[in-house]
## 1
Amino acid sequence: MKKYWILITAIVLFIAGLIFNEFYSSGMIAGDFALNYFSAGQFSIGVFSAGTFSIGIFSIGIFSIGVFSIG
């Protein structure tokens, strides 16, 4: 159980994100400076973020900071 806490956290947050998206779809934003739950843009901050400079739990970008980040 010790080794799988990150995977369990990722799955719980992903399911929470899907539920959040279902009821609050305005939580998604895209643009140069994006700050929301799901965000995409040059500078993005959110749980799921993608962009050149991104900060989030799940982040993808050239300069990305997060638990699960690809850069």
## 2
Amino acid sequence: MSLYPRLGVICVLLVACAADPPPSKYAQPAGQGSMAAAGTNGAVGQGELPPVPLESPVGRHGSLQVSGNRIVDEAGEAVQLRGMSLFWSQWSSFYTADSVDQLAGDWSATLVRAVLGVESGGYLENQAANEAKVVAVVDRAIERGVYVIIDWHDHRAQDHQSTARDFFTRMARRYGASPAVLFEVYNEPMGADWPTVKAYAESIIAAIRAENAHNLIIVGTPKWSQDVDVAALSPIAADGGVAYTLHFYAATHKQWLRNKAEVALTAGLPLFVTEWGSCEANGTGVLDPAETATWLDFMNQHQISWANWALNDKAEACSALVPGAGTKGPWPSQVLTASGKLVKAAIASTEAE
């Protein structure tokens, strides 16, 4: 979330390899490439990647890369994914197969974002529980054939670089063969300039690529992922598989931020809106449907993929569900908030990718 929680919390860094990670049904052995066909590279004792459902988003598009300022599929065609971000893993009960099923089914979402909370009682303090939540969502997304972002949800990731590098190394080993999986290596940099963020990102990208994983990687930009124009002045010299994060909250961020996005796009930077809301930047306050519509038109015009914040039932404006809606679903109209109704309609407003 753009501005909360912002309170400092004293976190104890765990030794990166101190705890065994939770098991995934779809781990891959080290050294397998991400372009391998699903179901052909099983890991001993942990099963194989399931076949990709042919009529699913992943079945239609396969692995994603970038071309110029667009994200494209295996055929080189531009793709715009639309879906939902989950809430911080340490504070959410929606990290379930049922939640993914509802999004992939009734909502027709093509994208789910699994938010690994890092500080404030998250991964740094409780590695196993938070990672297990993410693994459950990723596994189900692979089964359903929808794209899924593994998000390192951190505002000071450069301070936790060795821990992040270990995490993404293991995630690349597990999921590098799945075209469904995308890696977001830094959520919203806060108080770090672009050279600092860039150096951190290059380190994490190198760790992922060392596992022969060619998945699309998404990199946060300074000032809560708003300074995409600054990143465009010195982009990461990578391998055609890196996009850049843009976050907005429509009641706070208006034309001035779209102007920055236009500068980045004109410079050739591929953008990915991994988080946005129709409310104010603190997650609450009034909704701004008119400005939201302008943003949606902008993203459609430039074929920018997006995930809305958030599939959650917290009592705040940006939650998609009312308190007590339940994680299992179905979620009829009466348990959707004003934001939830708006976003569900936006996902369904154009032909699903």
